[in-house]
Amino acid sequence: MNKCISEAIAEALEADLASGRWKTGERLPSVDELRARFGAGEYAVRRAIRRLADSGAISVKKHVGAVVTAKPFWSWKGRVAFVAVGAMGSYFQQMLSIRFAQVFEPAGWQFVPVVIENAKDGSLDLEPLRRHLADGMDFVIGLFGEKQVAVMLDHAGVPYVILNGFTRNFPNARAVIREDARECFAALIAALRARGVRRLVEFDMPRSIDRSFKRQLFEAGISVERVMCKWDNERKWTLGDLKACGHRTVAAYFADERHRLRPPDVVLFDDDYLAVGGVVALFEAGFRIPADIGVVCHANRGNELALGVSVARFVNDPVSYADAVAEYVVAQLEGRRTALPKVAWRFVNGESIGRHKK
């Protein structure tokens, strides 16, 4: 994915600022000089300048031009934060946090996980983030899509990267690119079709199944039923709670005689810890895997699925993901230029993907 011209110009100027090419109070080259340097149009140069101004690295003054602000581009505090909205309850989030700590702390940076919860009125309680920003922060790794968080980071002048890629309305954010999952979905659907699968039930947390995936399933003649795993949003959830939630939801679904007599060909678990409890509930309901029913899981490395079940999985390893992000963040902190990481999904075709039709 190629960067737009203005973004490339902004990153080059950011690198110049970080290296000390221009001191505090000095003017940046004029728009015409920057156009000549980068071989770009006026609009691209002005947009890059605006991006730097939004980050707090420079100020643009009428009849003067772009001036380096007294505040350095990175206010060095030796601290990197991982900001997530909602409790870090999933395996993926917890492994990211653990791995970031393993990478940053031996390198001399203090790593700070920051969890932002929903307030009782439904709004976000931003006080934890505000408190940490007041203590000083060099860089933020974010797992959020809420603009209020981005605005607060912009106002504080702290550079940040967002892992979920929702940066359309965040002018100062960089987004880690997750490569298109269509190839992964296509591999799964081909395996489902090869086994004659017609019905799939997804046990999910409160998120929407990927629309493109759902459309591909429909086009392949595979129906999808989605079952929500419910919990009390007022509580902090642990991984053990997620296992129990998966077990409870699957057990309740197959307690219905209609579902027990006409089970789906495959169940899909959105979270690997939901799957741990869910697979046990399937066995307790009397199903054999995969002779009676198959299992597919959005799984990560370290999946605890019990009973020796070989499961078809979407794999997005949080350790390699965290390493790629950390390498990018360290390069930014050291003033080095590096491309944003791209993290790809892959599909592992296990033996439990669905019924083996006679």
Give a written overview of the molecule.
There is one protein chain. The chain has 358 residues and is an alpha/beta fold. It has 3 domains: 5-68, Orthogonal Bundle (Arc Repressor Mutant, subunit A), CATH 1.10.10; 79-175, Response regulator (Rossmann fold), CATH 3.40.50; 182-317, Response regulator (Rossmann fold, 3-Layer(aba) Sandwich), CATH 3.40.50.2300. Helices cover 40% and strands 18% of the residues. It contains 12 helices and 15 strands. The strands form 4 sheets. A 6-stranded mixed sheet has the order 10-9-11-12-13-15, with helices on both faces. A 5-stranded parallel sheet has the order 4-3-5-6-7, sandwiched between helices. It is elongated and about 80 Å long. The model is unreliable at 71-76 (pLDDT under 50).
